Amino acid sequence: MIEGLVQLFLWQGLGELASKFLLPSIPGPVLGLIFLVVFLIIKGEVNEPLGQVADSFRQHLGLLFVPASVGVVLFLPELQTHALAVSTALIVSVILTIGVTAVVLKVFWYFSLKFGKGQRHE
Amino acid sequence: MNERLPISEIWVYLSGDPLFALIITLATYQLGYILYVRANRNPIVNPVAISVVLTCLIISALNMPYEKYFEGAQFVHFLLGTATVALAVPIYNGFRRMKGKIFHMWVALTAGSTVSIVSAVAIAQWMGASNNMVGSMYAKSVTAPIAMGIAERINVSPTLTAVFTVITGMLGAILAPYILNALKVQQWWIRGTAIGVGAHGLGITRAFSVNEEAGIFASMAMGLNGVISAIGLPIVLTHLRPYLGI
């Protein structure tokens, strides 16, 4: 547990540094993520403690954005005024996002199976 | 302690302590999680939504200002960055499985996240939502930790972004099976990818409970979508902002 956390903190720190001095438009943790992916590809495996910590983060990711979401109390009147616009935008956008992603992949995959060479069949 | 403290003084002491905010946050989430598991992981019973609603009710009932609450809760909030870095693991695990599909995934992810942003922003603006609301639509389809990082960079409210993200995740997890069945999408990896882009965290949990391959592709799609958006959005927006008038 601790071992995995230490690794994550180090990559995060590296990402923050890179964000501060090299690429200020990208959030530090995202750079940390990219560094870690590259490191894992080079290394060819995920070590046990890192895998465990990453798993528990994935399971309870939601808990971490509770504090920020509670800030919604500050926006309640504004949200009420625009409730219809906000909910329509969110619902339609979700349907389109999932639909478009799936259709693009499906069509694309179909064509590459038909015309591509040596793709494995699913 | 010989003198008995009046209850109000105990209260003043407790509410000034960061521990109090931590306890509300964790306990309400724990309660939400128990209910979620009891409800067979039905996405409508979302532990995050339950926790947020209960916490809001508690702090408003106590007249506790949000800033005061956040002083304590920031210790949880801090871990968001670390959780973002941890997304590297599912992305890496997904990479190993997507040999021969990298290009497809890339195109589909770009298409999906573009549609997600453009549709949400356009509809919200067209229906007359305030700039605050419209701005927070940009990053809502990205997993919350990355979304809030992006929100800070493009000067929109991280709070509203987080709230919209949570709602998007719930909606996506609820609606995804119907959308995908209606479109007759059968391959698990395609279903997973679509869910990862559209419904992030909550969608992934759902995908994993149905099929492992779908779950792995969903995790990877969510992570990659976050990375693409984190790199692309600030660049695109700085060029587009003058024309959008936001």
Distance between the termini of chain A: 37 Å
The ordered H/E elements of chain A are: HHHHHHH
Structural class of chain A: mainly alpha
The largest sheet of chain B, given as strand count, sense and whether it forms a barrel, is:
none
Order of helices and strands of chain B: HHHHHHHHHHH
Radius of gyration of chain A: 21 Å
> Number of folding domains of chain A?
2
Low-confidence stretches of chain B: none
Main sheet record of chain A: none
Give me the count of strands of chain B.
Answer: 0
Q: Please give the number of β-strands of chain A.
A: 0
DSSP helix count of chain B? 11
- Morphology of chain A: extended
Estimated share of beta-strand residues of chain A: under 5%
Strand content of chain B: under 5%
Shape call of chain B: globular
What percent of residues of chain B adopt helix (DSSP H or I)?
over 70%
Q: Which features characterize this protein?
A:
heterodimer; A: 122 residues; mainly alpha; extended; B: 246 residues; 2 domains; 80% helix; globular
Task: Characterize the structure shown.
The complex is a heterodimer of chains A (122) and B (246). Chain A folds into two domains: 64 residues, no CATH class; 45 residues, no CATH class. Chain A is 79% helix and 0% strand. Chain A contains seven helices and no strands. The radius of gyration of chain A is 21 Å and the shape is extended. The mean pLDDT of chain A is 87. Chain B is built from eleven helices and no strands. The model of chain B has no long low-confidence stretch (mean pLDDT 84). With 246 residues, chain B is mostly helical. The interface between A and B is large, with 77 and 115 residues.
